[in-house]
Design brief:
EC number: 3.1.1.23, 3.1.1.6, 3.1.1.79
Strand content: 5-15%
Main location: membrane
Family: Belongs to the AB hydrolase superfamily. AB hydrolase 4 family.
Largest sheet: 9 strands, mixed
Keywords: Cell membrane, Glycoprotein, Hydrolase, Lipid degradation, Lipid metabolism, Membrane, Serine esterase, Signal-anchor, Transmembrane, Transmembrane helix
Shape: globular
CATH class of the largest domain: Alpha Beta
CATH architecture of the largest domain: 3-Layer(aba) Sandwich
Radius of gyration: 25 Å
Strand order of the largest sheet: 1-9-8-7-6-4-5-3-2
InterPro entries: AB_hydrolase_1, AB_hydrolase_4_CS, AB_hydrolase_4_sf, AB_hydrolase_fold, ABHD4
């Protein structure tokens, strides 16, 4: 009798287990996709000044909500993974000309030049000089998408191809790009200044490229001549401080470190004859045993220590990171500077963001923009599932550049008016 009474309760027990399993799965999905995170305008760090007030009025994206795709866009990991694997959606193919520059040490630097497709909003000749992320070049989809958008807004674009990054361009010296070497970027900028003497420059750097452009501007005051402004997106500011966080499993940084190290190994090994061949006059500190250590490297730090620092003769990894990071040069930049990071960037630890925050509190020319979401160079926009071809990042950089061009135009017009009034008096 008792068994007959208990039998009908068994399905209810099983239903409870199923509901618990479904609830557990939903909880994991909500946590992983960060669905409970709100959308909000980016956090802004700046000093109150005429320039900052003008930017807030002229750049709506600075004060509007950044709304990523509803299902997955609030996950920094998915934003980063989509950028890394896919780049962009329906990326255009802008047409440009490849330029070659022979460096003093025999290296052959290349960059691609794209002419504007429309008149600029202020009618001036403006060139964006662009430095991509680690091991990237002008053929990457996120670069193509940004260049196409900038061209349509009246900008000429010059995009550096990192030394050794293009698979069809051989190295002509035993050296490839490093974390903070500005030689190739400087050569590209000098070419643009010489070829287009009337042009003004907007400097743009993505990730590692952000470090290079900021370091370049801060190295010499002359490097800032004819520069209207600089934009850095998703850089880490200090490799020395970042190396500790990059070995942590928090936010899967150690896994990302491994993946990037594996990609770097492939690039270096594709140039093994130019870098390690018997006929090559290698840097004195670079030995054949470094090649064997390269095969077993599982982090960027090991690669930097065994190979990359030796291209420039640094005695230690600490010295290499200290000298090659832009952190010690940021305070020497006097042109308007916008630094952009995402709070959920899994590659850039939150402790590194104290650097741009502190800088923006001391310098009137600096604005630090920190949206909640975007990952590492993701910043996709979209309604529910499918992202738009153009990202929030693409639009923000061009909108900021347009505002700075208008700011400079207004300043020159005011100074001309004041000069005329003084002459009349």
């Amino acid at each position: 009798m008792n068994a007959m009474l208990e039998t009908p309760e068994l399905p209810a027990v099983f239903d409870g287990v199923k509901l618990a399993a479904v609830a557990a799965v939903l909880y994991v999905i909500v946590r992983c996709l960060n669905l409970k995170s709100p959308t909000a305008p980016p956090d802004l760090y700046f000093q109150d000044s005429g320039l900052s007030r003008f930017l807030l009025k002229s750049c709506p994206l600075l004060t509007k909500e950044y709304i990523p795709p509803l299902i997955w866009g609030k996950s920094g990991h998915i934003q980063t993974a989509l950028y890394g694997k896919m780049g962009r959606v329906r990326s255009p193919h802008p047409y440009g000309h490849r330029k070659f520059i022979t460096m003093a040490d025999g290296a052959t630097s290349t960059f691609d030049l794209f002419e504007p497709l429309a008149e600029h909003c202020v009618g001036d000749d403006i060139t964006m000089v662009i430095c991509p992320g680690i091991a990237n070049h002008s053929e990457k989809q996120y670069i193509r998408t940004f260049v196409d958008y900038a061209q349509k807004n009246g900008y000429r674009c010059a995009v550096l191809n990192h030394l050794g990054a293009l698979p069809n361009i051989e190295l002509t010296s035993p050296r490839m790009f490093t974390y903070g070497c500005t030689w190739e970027f400087g050569a590209m900028v000098n070419y643009i200044k010489k070829t287009y003497p009337q042009t003004q420059l907007v400097v743009v750097g993505f990730s590692l490229g952000g470090n290079i452009v900021c370091k370049y501007l801060g190295e010499k005051q002359a490097n800032q001549e004819k520069v209207l402004c600089c934009v850095s997106v998703c850089q880490g500011y200090s490799a020395l401080r970042a190396q500790e966080t990059f070995m942590q499993w928090d936010q899967c940084r150690r896994f990302y470190n491994f993946l990037m190290a594996d990609n770097m190994k492939k690039i270096i090994l594709s140039h093994r004859q130019a870098l390690f061949g018997d006929h090559v006059k290698k840097p004195q500190s670079l030995e054949d045993t470094d090649l064997s250590r390269l095969y077993t490297a599982t982090s960027l730090m090991q690669i930097d220590d065994n190979v990359m620092r030796k291209f420039h003769g640094y005695n230690s990894l600490k010295e290499y990171y200290e000298e090659e990071s832009c952190m010690r040069y940021l305070h020497r930049i006097y042109v308007p500077l916008m630094l952009v990071n995402a709070a959920d960037d899994p590659l850039v630890h939150e402790s590194l963001l104290t650097i741009p925050k502190s800088l923006s509190e001391k310098r009137e020319n600096v604005m630090f923009v920190l949206p909640l979401h975007g990952g590492h160079l993701g910043f996709f926009e979209g309604s529910v599932l499918f992202p738009e071809p153009l990202t929030w990042m693409d639009k923000l950089v061009v909108e900021y550049a347009n505002a700075i061009c208008q700011w400079e135009r207004n300043k020159s017009q005011c100074s001309d008016t004041e000069q005329v009034e003084a002459e009349l008096e």
